[in-house]
Each structure stands twice: as structure tokens, then as C-alpha cells.
């Protein structure tokens, strides 16, 4: 019996979620959050269209990544295929370009949060 079979035998997992979990070691493809580490992390589990469906991304396992809710929200409808430069369109390249994009967006949001905390600290 395989890990896939064992997860499927629980009756709680669908084939896509099981395949993505195994493919990404049950971690977010973009930030490496361990999706089985806690209830909070598990409840953030989402299937992301790497190339968004709104940008003609296919509904296929080759266009899916395991994502946490935060990374999926940050990436939104941003299309990594339009930002590959000289790189070939492969799942790995699309995910790596998406990671870079998400990291930069997270840094910007963290800077905003730091500013807001500085402001509130003045009035505490």
C-alpha cells in the first residue's frame, strides 16, 4: 500500500488533494508552510491554479499547486507565465517565479504592518 492509497482510504481526501499533498510534501508550494502541522495550517489548504483560470490556465494537476490561503490570496490572478523571461514554461519554473513574486509582496505588506505598529505604539 502507498501513501496515496492510505490517504484515499481515510475517505477524507480527494485524488487531487492527495496528489498535491504528496507532490509538495504537504507544504505550501510558495512559502513552505507545513499544512499538516496544525489545525490552523490545515484549514488554510487551498489548490492554486499556477496559471490562473482567468488567464486561460487549465484545470489539470500540471497547473495545480498546493498553497496556503495567504499565498493564494497574494498571488491572486497574477500570471507567472507572463514573467518567465528566458525560462521555459515548466511547472517548477512557474512556481519559482511565483515564489519570488509572493516574497516581494509579503515584504511590502510587512513594511506596512511595521509602520502601522509604529503609529499605534505612539498612542499606547
Kindly describe this structure.
It contains five helices and two strands. The protein has 124 residues and is mainly alpha-helical. The chain has one domain.
**What structural class should be given to the helix and strand makeup?**
mainly alpha
Number of helices: 5
Rounded to the nearest angstrom, the distance between the terminal CA atoms is: 58 Å
* Helix-strand string: HHHEEHH
Principal-axes shape call: flat
Largest sheet: 2 strands, antiparallel
| Uncertain ranges | none
Domains, number: 1
Percent of residues in beta strands = 5-15%
| Secondary structure: number of strands | 2
- The proportion of residues forming helix, as a percent range, comes to 40-55%
Strands in their spatial order, largest beta sheet: 1-2
Instruction: Name the average pLDDT.
Output: 96
CA-atom Rg in angstroms: 17 Å
Amino acid at each position: 500500500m502507498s501513501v496515496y492509497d492510505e490517504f484515499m482510504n481515510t475517505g477524507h481526501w480527494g485524488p487531487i488533494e492527495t496528489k498535491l499533498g504528496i507532490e509538495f510534501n504537504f507544504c505550501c508550494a510558495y512559502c513552505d508552510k507545513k499544512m499538516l502541522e496544525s489545525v490552523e495550517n490545515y484549514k488554510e489548504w487551498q489548490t492554486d491554479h499556477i496559471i490562473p483560470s482567468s488567464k486561460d490556465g487549465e484545470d489539470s494537476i500540471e497547473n495545480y499547486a498546493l498553497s496556503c490561503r495567504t499565498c493564494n490570496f497574494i498571488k491572486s490572478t497574477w500570471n507567472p507565465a507572463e514573467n518567465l523571461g528566458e525560462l521555459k514554461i515548466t511547472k517548477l519554473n512557474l512556481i519559482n517565479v511565483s515564489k519570488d513574486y509572493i516574497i516581494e509582496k509579503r515584504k511590502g505588506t510587512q513594511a506596512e504592518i511595521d509602520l502601522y505598529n509604529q503609529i499605534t505604539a505612539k498612542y499606547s
